[in-house]
Amino acid sequence: MSRKTFIAALAVPLVMAGCANVSNYRPLIDTKGVDGAQYEQDLRECRAYAQRINPQSQAVMGAIVGALATAATVAIAMDSGDYLGRSAGVGAVAGAAEGGGSAVVAQRRAVHKCLDGRGYSVLQ
Known about the structure:
- Residues 1-17 form the signal peptide.
- This is Outer membrane lipoprotein SlyB.
- Keywords: Lipoprotein, Signal.
- The chain is an all-alpha fold.
- It has one domain (3-117).
- It is built from 4 helices and no strands.
- It has helices spanning 3-19, 36-50, 55-78, 84-117.
- Helix 2 (36-50) runs antiparallel to helix 4 (84-117).
- The longest helix has 34 residues, at 84-117.
- Mean pLDDT is 73; it is low at 13-18.
């Protein structure tokens, strides 16, 4: 993997993680007996709490862990350092995508828990 290819491949999950957030996320709730105006206020507040979880920083951490883990595994399995750079690059890209995706899931889970804590029945 050339350096330019590696940087481009790593940039995609990092940029996507930076764009991902819960600002427009609307979980499915049971609306029976729910005051719509109060729900909208609570949803805005819960989204704000969830946005404290940073997908970009988790993507970077995933890239670091992915690169190290994959390079170490390949070095041990192949008993050679010939493929370290390539395997580290692949691991970094995969780790960045996984870390960013996990953060988005965590943000949605935080919105659910927040709304649940305020008495809403979150269905999905």
